[in-house]
Amino acid sequence: MECALDAQSLISISLRKIHSSRTQRGGIKLHKNLLVSYVLRNARQLYLSERYAELYRRQQQQQQQQPPHHQHQHLAYAAPGMPASAADFGPLQLGGGGDAEAREPVARHQLHQLHQLHQLHLQQQLHQHQHPAPRGCAAAAAGAPAGGAGALSELPGCAALQPPHGAPHRGQPLEPLQPGPAPLPPPAPAALCPRDPRASAACSAPSAPPGAAPQAATAASPPASPAPASSPGFYRGAYPAPSDFGVHCSSQTTVLDLDTHVVTTVENGYLHQDCCASAHCPCCGQGAPGPGLASAAGCKRKYYPGQEEEDDDDEDAGDLGAEPPGGVPFAPCKRARFEDFCPDSSPDASNISNLISIFGSGFSGLVSRQPDSSEQPPPLNGQLCAKQALASLGAWTRAIVAF
Amino acid sequence: MFLKFSLRSVFYGAGGGNDIQWCFSQVKGAVDDDVAEDIISTVEFNHSGELLATGDKGGRVVIFQQEQENKIQSHSRGEYNVYSTFQSHEPEFDYLKSLEIEEKINKIRWLPQKNAAQFLLSTNDKTIKLWKISERDKRPEGYNLKEEDGRYRDPTTVTTLRVPVFRPMDLMVEASPRRIFANAHTYHINSISINSDYETYLSADDLRINLWHLEITDRSFNIVDIKPANMEELTEVITAAEFHPNSCNTFVYSSSKGTIRLCDMRASALCDRHSKLFEEPEDPSNRSFFSEIISSISDVKFSHSGRYMMTRDYLSVKIWDLNMENRPVETYQVHEYLRSKLCSLYENDCIFDKFECCWNGSDSVVMTGSYNNFFRMFDRNTKRDITLEASRENNKPRTVLKPRKVCASGKRKKDEISVDSLDFNKKILHTAWHPKENIIAVATTNNLYIFQDKVN
């Protein structure tokens, strides 16, 4: 009777449930679908946390193999020509030099994307709670408490370093972290945030300058920081409170209000994810990086600040190396319509294409036309679906409403 | 003398759930399984306990009546036999929304008897109906212009006149719908509850609660509305609601987040702001993927006294004192051994099962169902609990039920059942306790079991 408490399998099971509820007699059961969406969200949280921990672990291992002089104080994300200054920046030490980078480009990119995703999610949580975010919680500079405060406080705004000079990875979304290399108000990025993810999210001022957008400003903590995996409390703390429900992220959704019978189309920001690094979302690549926090609906949320460099129609994700380890580049495809449903696809694929038609464009890209052949065989559609689900969870509630 | 003594000991439930020996009395329903329409979806005794109503998935209501016996010399209480059967709800189709409306009866509630007829409310997902169940045991005979078979006589052939008289006939029980309360709920109705004023009642769906007058069908008052302006922000739904048994202005509703709100209708027309909020803080060490699901309350029932209320979530039963909001006064674990199986239960959808719970007449024992056709009773005074099984194996009348035990882990003793061999398709969701005596009705999937305590 045992089943794998694996985040990904839970996600696919949940998706299947939501899909099958559509065809059950009596119409969509709001209560059951609400509960399923809670499971989806919890699984997603764990998935992100696990991925993050794993990538960090990998990074740590790799870093330990490096000669000491590669340790930098700044997060040198990139170009081999970077000044060797601050490598040892905590868990998201993305490596100090070209060597490291060449060794683990994918991992680093993954880590970065994962971090961004996490930051954004934390900000969403923050927004949901309507905490008035203190501008630059300059609680402390890179201080000792940060070291013990758990993983989150060390989440570098690593994510934040701007590729100072032409990073080889095009469009790496880096933003200035340290006051040094980039023009940023020092307090925000250098602020120490306490362990509580929500509080640390609060440190990222919503009105932060564009460059610092999805920042959970974290401490430039001393190098010897515990791995995220070693502070399990953090990940448990990452479980959202029920009131966080309503995480949303899809580009466009159509909603039918059961009471007023009004059909509305809602546009939201699009939450990118490591499996969907391609610029399929219409909102990316538009304009300057916006503030990290957006209101719940009707806002475009900028996720990859560097995305603007990408062509909107760029379908080639390969260059970014934007795949999960062993995964397949996610080729975007046209939005599947109900009529396009291919009965001879795997059951998951058929469900997914139906789901797409239900949920609107939030799931575009779920069904990949043809996964690029790469080192790995194409993953199951269920796996793709799960990955996408991690990015766009809010569509579920709308799906419920839509019926 | 003897009669008085035995009745009193019965009423106060001497010894409670454990000292009582429960015996099999009857089982109703088909022996062979799996007719979907026969799945019992609700069970309810009326106020005297003489009538027992069941609703099923096919929209039918079956009412059983207890035989009246001479109690002094009875060795068991009267049997329940079918009294009336009628089709309460039919499947419907909402063409506007392209939704099929199930005919499954979600709840039945009896009105107290005011005259010879009986009245009950039955509801499916969208429509509530008031049914009048009346007996006819006489019929008029001896009409002048009509033959006995109903044909009309030619008036010119009438030569004498007579007065028609009532003559006894075979008892006929008729059920007729007296009121239909429709079109008031957008979401699925989960509860109905009759007010202690016996004039109004409430109906609750996932997001709203409406107040009706029993005489008026074309309008109702909305008294609770938790629908958010933006459905994306939906975080909880209403799962059950009930009027207080004595205070006609007070009702409670439970939510999927594990909270109960008590509202006073005198405070305002729209009772969106609760008077009391009952919530127990979550134990962080028990946090899991499924925490939200298992904390969702599936049933809420006031005690007969009105001082307490009981809530059922997936794994436990909690008794709340209305005067204390921050935690329940008693918590009983129904099947804690399932906590490690939540993932599998999620996969097979069992984690969404909505168990009901009930009080005995004196509020000293509470009962609820579980899996493998087990049901559990908790004695609030002795703090003892018992697990019994509803099974056709023990179907000799007055067979005492043997207590069952589930072995959570480790070495399984003889007669114990291991968690992995529990049958999760055999679930007892609906139970009812006679308001005055130790008679219980327990519904398995499509059978109704009646158990009584052993009367010497």
From TrEMBL, chain A:
Compositional bias (Low complexity): 122-144, 190-206, 213-230
InterPro entries: IER
Region (Disordered) residue spans: 122-230, 305-326
Compositionally biased spans, kind Pro residues: 176-189
Cross-referenced Pfam families: IER
Sequence ranges of Acidic residues compositional bias: 307-318
Family: Belongs to the IER family.
Record-given protein name: Immediate early response gene 5-like protein
Species assigned in the record: Physeter macrocephalus
TrEMBL record, chain B:
Keyword set, alphabetical order: Repeat, WD repeat
InterPro entries: PP2A_PR55 (IPR000009), PP2A_PR55_CS (IPR018067), WD40/YVTN_repeat-like_dom_sf (IPR015943), WD40_repeat_dom_sf (IPR036322), WD40_rpt (IPR001680)
Record-given protein name: Serine/threonine-protein phosphatase 2A 55 kDa regulatory subunit B
Family stated for the protein in its record: Belongs to the phosphatase 2A regulatory subunit B family.
PANTHER family: PROTEIN PHOSPHATASE PP2A REGULATORY SUBUNIT B
Keyword Repeat among record annotations: yes
Gene3D superfamilies documented for this protein: YVTN repeat-like/Quinoprotein amine dehydrogenase
GO cellular component, one term: protein phosphatase type 2A complex
Species lineage: Eukaryota, Metazoa, Chordata, Craniata, Vertebrata
Gene Ontology MF: a single term: protein phosphatase regulator activity
Top-level taxonomic group: Eukaryota
PROSITE patterns linked to this entry: PR55_1, PR55_2
